Structure formats: structure tokens, C-alpha cells
Amino acid sequence: MLDQSAVGLSVQQKFSYTWRDIILYNLSVGAGQDTLEYVYEQGLKAIPTFGVIPCAATFGTEPYTAQPVMPTSKIEGLRKEGTLHMDHKLVLYRPIPTEGTLTINKVITGVYDRGEGKGAKIQVEISAADETGETLFTNTMGYLNRWAGGFGGEKPPASTVHIPDRSPDLTAYGQYPANAPLLYRLTGDTFPLHADPAFAKKSGFDRPIVHGLCSLGYACRMLTALLFPGEPERVISLENQFRSVAMPGDSFALQVWLEETGKAYFRMVGDKDGKAILDYGCITYR
Fold this sequence. Notes:
single chain; about 290 residues; alpha+beta; Thiol Ester Dehydrase, Chain A; 2 domains; eleven-stranded antiparallel beta sheet; 11 strands
């Protein structure tokens, strides 16, 4: 049963990684030979959304688990199937080192009632502290649980991001390779929806789908290339809502609006159907 008593439930893990994990992640979100700083250990830089990896990490965690560990597992009687990742925000306090061991703390910070039959939103904050105890980055993840609505809680807060009602200032184009989810899952998110055709069909899809956070990684890499090529360390924060499913092989457009110094808004739109894959996106930078 979900209610306000879930707020404060937490789990803690250690997460260790090396330069190989950084390069594997960068490759999984589309980096290539034309951006040597992402694919070669000499002068290597992390695409900032590597900071989302500990959220759903399996590889590199202590203790190791075959599937990601979340504090929602401590909510008695909560049905897990049908849970969807609704929105995400990553805040970076300094550039991500190319190796390290982090202490990851995952805590439920909010539960919101969308109404009977409409599900509930569960908000989880994931902080990562380095070996000195200083926070390196934080993630705020919003999940929709389809079965938990109607408990009388507060309504979910609305997004504060507003995409301008005009043509974008910048547009970049991309395409997921056919093996996109197979490659991305090697970074640690091993949920079978992204590899097993039978599991995907049981979940209502014709075939395995692209991870939402993989799409966010593509967006981050492309935003950096548009706004400050080769300087990913300038990113302060990135947030978005996940809207529609992307499939391996799909092509898309990343639309960007420049509204004020140090801030841009973005949307990722699929070419096939014109639907937003990512929406209400905002990147801030120094």
C-alpha cells in the first residue's frame, strides 16, 4: 500500500567505475571517432549524463544485484509491473572524473496521487558522493506506478519548464543504431524489456525498445555539440519528461530553443510519427 509513510525509505550502494565504463557509456549514446574526447582514454571526458548510470546500475555495484535496487522495493504490497519512468533531472556539482568509487544513496522524497485508476507518482532522489564524502551529482527520478492511485495524497506538481511557442533556434538530427538498447544495457540497466523479444511482447511492444535514459544521453551529447562543442564540463543540469517510446533504428530531430544566457530548452521528436520522445527538456550551463 502506497502512502506518505513511504517517504524516507532508502537504500545505499557503492558504485565503482573506470575509464572503460566511461567510454562504453559514451559509445552507447552515439559518440564516435569525430569526438575523440569521448572515445579515447587520452584526454577522456565523460558525457555528463554518465551521472544517471548509478540510478539503475547493476555492474560495478556493491553488493552486486542482477536488477537495479530501488527503495520502492521496501513498500509492502506495491505492484512493480507496469511502472514507467516519467521524468528525470540530473544536477552536476563538478565534472565527473574518469574513474572512482561513489557512495550512492537512493531515497523516496515524495509520493503523489494522480487519482483512482490513474496511478501514483513516486519521486526518488539519488545522490552520489565521492571518496571524500562530497556530493558529485544528484538525480531526481519520477516514476508512474499504474496501480497505486487513489490513496488520497497530494497531486503531482506540474513541470516548471515551458517550451517556447515558436520554431526552434537550433535543430540537430540523429538515429539510433539497430543495436542501441543492446549496447546501452551493458552500462548496467539490464531490464529485459530492452533485449528479450518475448518480454517486450508481453509488455505490449512489437520488439525491445530503447531505454529512456539512452535517449537522454543522446540528447545531452547533441546539446553539448550544438552549444559548446568539446566542453561537456560546462553542463550544470539537465531535465526532461519521457513521452513516447523510441525503437532501435528510429531517426529523430533534437529541437533547441535559446531563451536566456546559460539555459536552453529542448525536445526530441521522432521522424516516423512526429511524436515527442523527450519533452519539456531544459539544460543549464556555465
